[in-house]
Give the backbone structure.
Amino acid sequence: MAYETLLTELKDGVLTLTLNRPEQLNAYTAQMGIDLADAFVAADEDDAVRVVVVTGAGRHFCAGADMGSGSDSFGGDGDKLFGARKAPGPKGGFVGAIFACRKPSIAAINGGAVGVGVTMTLPMDIRIASEKAKFGFVFARRGLAPEAGSAWFLPRLVGLPQALRWCYRADVFDAQEALRGGLVSEVTAPEDLLARAQEMAREIAEETSPVSIAMVRQLLWRSAGEPDLFKVLAVDGPANMAMGASPDVKEGVAAFLEKRKPDFPGKVSRDMPPQYPWWD
């Protein structure tokens, strides 16, 4: 599908989404939010998509909200930036779509990722960065508060003290600080970034069960803040009993014994265990 603000490419099970407003440093607009939400919903429903990689066209990932209207950019009814919240689509807009997606996602952060440009990556599962990447939770310097669910995601990812430091400072920091703070898992040379992200994505696509990955993704995200161990056990035990009788498990064991790559028959669209989605 063609999008106003995104380029898409599907190859070998890896869907690459490229934020495509390079002249505006890929600055975020309501249309970009709508496009991202639609792309992640479509990826969730398409069995041909195993992993989603998100990157930016040109020198930057996303320089934050488009402030082309100057000091009025965030005022009025906010349609230019926040209209995605009023548009038809998943609960929570693009944040909800990324979080609910059964396919894992990798952010390949190639340059500036500031404000919503960094918070949009937090519901994604893996973040890697170019040496030239810059990050900033700059809301307090603009008179705003953390958005896109970042007050929920960021402390879970990097811990509350680190989240508070970055949000109180509200400044821009480099890729090495992001690595030390746990925001990104690795830093690469700029020319190697996208290839590295796609390599990670292909490994997931080629070596793992799509149904298992869908369960891993939601179990880990939704259990991270669950205070009651027994609620988690009430889900993962019955789910694994159901999955243990599936053709995927037979294929996974056979591939291990025969020392070959697996060819899992299970499809996310039809073969999720009966417990899924347990939170409903």
